[in-house]
């Protein structure tokens, strides 16, 4: 049957026919697999077809081996500023892109004010409202230089995953980590930043606005003295404050030239009338966005899929009409010879998918609005603690760490099951020997 | 942690604590890509409790081995994404620096010869 359908003059083999080449899907299935069709009523084919055997009956392997992924994956940076960036990830699936987005928003640690020790507020703003506002002020400091305060859960998980590897180094590490749990139980220079706010409005002056540049960094720790019950003890030594700084934070090399200040100096915190005063101390600690949104390092992070518009052979008057329809000027007219004009898609990235181009009679048949399922345009807006490219790298590290912890747990499970099977077989042998 | 039959290793439900959609969806994606898997899915029994149940059914291999390999693949994917991203940022910065230099030299020489990418 594989012989060519041969005439004497024109011999051709059936394999020369323009059919579906082996190993590839027919075009309409490829469209379903890789594009979201955004129709007038609703988008279809939105689910990404992940199952490795989805096209098994056609003999096509849908599984993405790691080397195929590595070859096809690309990143292109479009815009990179100090505070925000936009880049394209091509060849990745929505599940992983969404994981990165979730980690960027909720699981990257930052420093934010958590405890506010109030000495005196005569302003009309309530204590709790002022404390809440102080918590939301972003602080320009690299959170990787600090530890969690009494981070029992975090240290335990890290230690446990290393412990799973069952090496002496891992056991030693887990012991060290358990020691550091004890050390980090109290606010010291490794896990707390202390700010002071003392503003007074004189009796005869106008109202003043307290802005975030009024927060002064105290590198030596808290200055408020704790009240001790026994007045007899420690009357000569240093009075106990609310933090236990071993050394000044100014000695840490990263802070020598850049003091820790709020990122934006003009955030309004409170307003004071004449004769009113605010005196307080604020302690900032490390946390993640899951606990409270003040610890989220991004203003926001989002992604969208690239739009691909197919408008074939729209000419002359229809072309003019389509070009004028689009509110963001996606289309352009290309002049062919003999006075004919044809429509081209000039700026597909600018498309907001407003669907104006497919509204009206028959336009849906001429213009196909689709989204590419594996091309993600990521935008990250940082609040200032870390630059956005560092944020994304840290997010990937966190996903890697989470999977490593899970894998370590799986390896422990496999080991335990093997131990149990070995014990069972020993018992059976023992019974056999005994009998 | 693993709920399955003692005799049949190829199907099991793994219950992970302190996890949510972030890791469960990513692991489910890599599990799907493995040709040994016939069925995989995840569910969150209650949204207030941070617990994820991942169900894996395979064509004969023990389910925990398949899950371990899926986690391994996900880790390698993350590493590859990270290195590609770092390189892309470096390239972007380098090309921007070249562009800035070109603009400076354009003012002085007044001749635009190459096009930077």
Overview of the molecule:
The complex is a heterodimer of chains A (435) and B (117). Chain A has four domains: 23-63, no CATH class; 67-108 and 298-306 and 375-425, RNA polymerase, RBP11-like subunit (Gyrase A, domain 2, 2-Layer Sandwich); 110-159 and 184-226 and 239-295, DNA-directed RNA polymerase, insert domain (RNA Polymerase Alpha Subunit, Chain A, domain 2); 313-365, 2-Layer Sandwich (Alpha-Beta Plaits), CATH 3.30.70. Chain A has ten helices and 18 strands. Chain A starts with a strand and ends with a helix. In chain A, strands 3, 4, 5, 6, 15 and 18 form a six-stranded antiparallel β-sheet that branches. In chain A, 30% of the residues lie in helices and 25% in strands. In chain A, a hairpin with a 4-residue loop joins strand 3 (35-38) and strand 4. Mean pLDDT of chain A is 80; it is low at 1-8, 152-159 and 161-170. Chain A is an alpha+beta fold and 435 residues long. With 117 residues, chain B is α+β, with helices and mostly antiparallel strands. Chain B has a single domain, classed as Gyrase A, domain 2 (2-Layer Sandwich). Chain B has helices spanning 21-33, 63-109, and strands at residues 2-4, 11-17, 37-43, 51-58. In chain B, a hairpin with a 6-residue loop joins strand 1 and strand 2 (11-17). In chain B, helix 1 packs across helix 2. Chain B starts with a strand and ends in an 8-residue tail after the last helix.
